[in-house]
Write a structure and sequence with these properties.
Largest sheet: 4 strands, mixed
Shape: globular
Order of helices and strands: EHEEHEHHHHH
CATH topology of the largest domain: Conserved hypothetical protein from pyrococcus furiosus pfu- 392566-001, ParB domain
Strand order of the largest sheet: 1-4-2-3
Helix content: 40-55%
CATH architecture of the largest domain: Alpha-Beta Complex
Radius of gyration: 19 Å
CATH class of the largest domain: Alpha Beta
Strand content: 5-15%
Number of strands: 4
Number of domains: 2
Number of helices: 7
Length: 156
């Protein structure tokens, strides 16, 4: 059951705050690289009374670091106990997720090279790619197939 208006509103970033009880340490640098590559595609969720972020604390931090003046925000009218439950539940659920190796190995290189490299700035080499592919139960691709998909050649 949806109990709130979930329409994001463009909000001045200086008017919201990171949740002071968030125990999760997110990879803000990776989020910044993702924003640079993919843009901002999801809102941050805040508690109306405190203006604390209950979902998206590290996205908020990345946007602050990048100098964004505004961000998309969904505001929930919830008490402190529910805000903390949402914060902790969202953190825990994201930690419990995993990839489907069978599906992942079927995706084209260009679709997931960025993700497999864990957002590293250094692109995957063919050797890196085939190591990952083997680890997922896939058959390594030939150098010619990899080059055709745009994967850099093996490093010496």
């Amino acid at each position: 059951m949806i109990q709130h208006d979930l329409t994001p509103v463009e909000t001045d970033i200086e008017t919201i705050y990171p949740h002071p009880r968030n125990p999760h340490n997110g990879d803000v640098e990776a989020i910044k690289r993702s924003i640079a590559k993919n843009g901002v595609y999801a809102p941050v969720v805040i508690q109306k009374s405190t203006r604390f972020v209950v979902k998206g604390n590290h996205t908020y931090e990345a946007l602050m670091d990048l100098g964004f003046p505004t961000l998309p925000v969904v505001t929930l009218d919830i008490d402190d106990d529910r805000a903390l439950r949402i914060l902790l539940t969202d953190n825990r659920i994201s930690q419990r997720g995993n990839d489907d190796p069978g599906l992942l190995k079927t995706l084209p290189v260009s679709s997931y090279e960025f993700v497999i490299s864990r957002f590293d700035e250094k692109p995957l080499t063919a050797r890196d790619f085939n190591r990952v592919r083997k680890g997922l139960g896939g058959i390594p691709l030939s150098k010619a197939d990899l080059q055709q998909q745009g994967v850099p050649a093996w490093e010496k």
